[in-house]
């Protein structure tokens, strides 16, 4: 009995050490661990892609969250190794005057997936429940009408055969501030900081209230919300990809072994005077 207890304790200690080895000094996932796990998950996403294409299935994934929550980076992690013809990312601009006169959700409907497609919305029809409501771009009556109607719309979407997954990325106030400040001083990221981000930044509590009301009205059995903590971007990306894969009943699709055919290559290059790119590196 003592040996069994010692063995269990040893296994638990080893697991603890492994978890510690996965984290850096700040308690966040190490890059090496992240890249190893992401490589494995990318292989699974390719399997998912081939299954969706072969079976003509329809997947729709919605990402929502505050500015700086990590939606864009998560979507990039998902789509890095798959075909953009199968995985289509939709990030709609500000609605036109014509679109403003339509039924609110109407402009999103043409982008829903057809057979053999996975559509990812980088913000979606839930703009109305979030930024539009908080920033006063719609009336409170319009927001309430949206929250009342959208569960039925999503039920129709799922009943049409679409697997609908909705994710909210939850970032803490301090981490959001750090990320937004980081964008100010980085030429590669300054484009991510819009005037709207600055206007919405002071309205943390307003966004929290809008988020909670959105969950209460639209977290349904057929289209539930899943919340991912995103202060550690690497953990969030892996956790979300793992969860997506767990919610879709994909299977391995058999593929014939590929072998390159023989070819002939001319002994000398063409004599045409092409304009070459200077080799500065």
Overview of this protein structure:
The structure is a single chain. By secondary structure, the protein is of the alpha/beta class. The chain has one domain: P-loop containing nucleotide triphosphate hydrolases (Rossmann fold, 3-Layer(aba) Sandwich). Helix content is about 45%, strand content about 10%. The chain has a five-stranded parallel beta sheet, with helices on both faces. Helix 3 (about 70-80) packs across helix 10. The termini are far apart. The mean pLDDT is about 90.
Tell me the strand order in the biggest sheet.
2-3-1-4-5
DSSP strand count:
5
Q: Assign the CATH class.
A: Alpha Beta
Largest sheet: 5 strands, parallel
List the topology elements:
Elements: H1 2-22, H2 31-55, E1 58-65, H3 71-79, E2 87-90, H4 97-100, E3 117-122, H5 131-134, H6 140-159, E4 162-170, H7 173-184, H8 195-200, H9 204-218, E5 225-229, H10 233-247
Parallel strand pairs: 1-3, 1-4, 2-3, 4-5
Helix pairs in contact: 2-10, 3-10
Short description:
The protein is an alpha/beta fold. The chain contains ten helices and five strands.
């Amino acid at each position: 009995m003592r040996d069994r207890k010692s063995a269990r304790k040893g296994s638990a200690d080893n697991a603890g050490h492994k978890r510690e080895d996965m984290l850096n000094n700040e308690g966040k996932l190490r890059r090496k661990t992240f890249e190893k796990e992401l490589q494995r998950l990318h292989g699974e996403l390719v399997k998912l892609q081939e299954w969706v294409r072969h079976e003509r299935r329809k997947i729709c994934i919605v990402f929502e969250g505050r500015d700086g929550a990590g939606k864009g980076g998560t979507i990039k992690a998902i789509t890095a190794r798959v075909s953009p013809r199968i995985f289509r990312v939709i990030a709609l601009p500000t609605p036109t005057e014509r679109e403003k006169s339509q039924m609110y959700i109407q402009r999103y409907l043409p982008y829903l997936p057809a057979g053999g497609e996975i559509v990812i919305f980088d913000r979606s029809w839930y703009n109305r429940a979030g930024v539009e409501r908080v920033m006063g771009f719609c009336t409170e009556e319009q927001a309430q009408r949206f929250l009342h109607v959208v569960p039925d719309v999503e039920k129709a979407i799922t009943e049409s055969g679409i697997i609908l997954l909705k994710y909210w990325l939850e970032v803490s106030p301090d981490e959001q501030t750090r990320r937004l400040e980081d964008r100010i001083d980085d030429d590669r990221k300054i484009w991510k900081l819009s005037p709207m981000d600055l206007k919405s930044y002071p309205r943390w509590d307003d966004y929290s209230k809008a988020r909670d009301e959105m969950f209460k009205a639209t977290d349904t059995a057929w289209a539930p919300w899943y919340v991912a903590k995103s202060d550690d971007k690497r953990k969030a990306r892996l956790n979300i990809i793992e969860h997506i894969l767990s919610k879709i009943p994909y299977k391995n699709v058999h593929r014939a072994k590929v072998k390159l055919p023989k070819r002939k290559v001319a002994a000398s290059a063409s004599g045409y005077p092409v304009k070459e790119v200077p080799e500065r590196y």
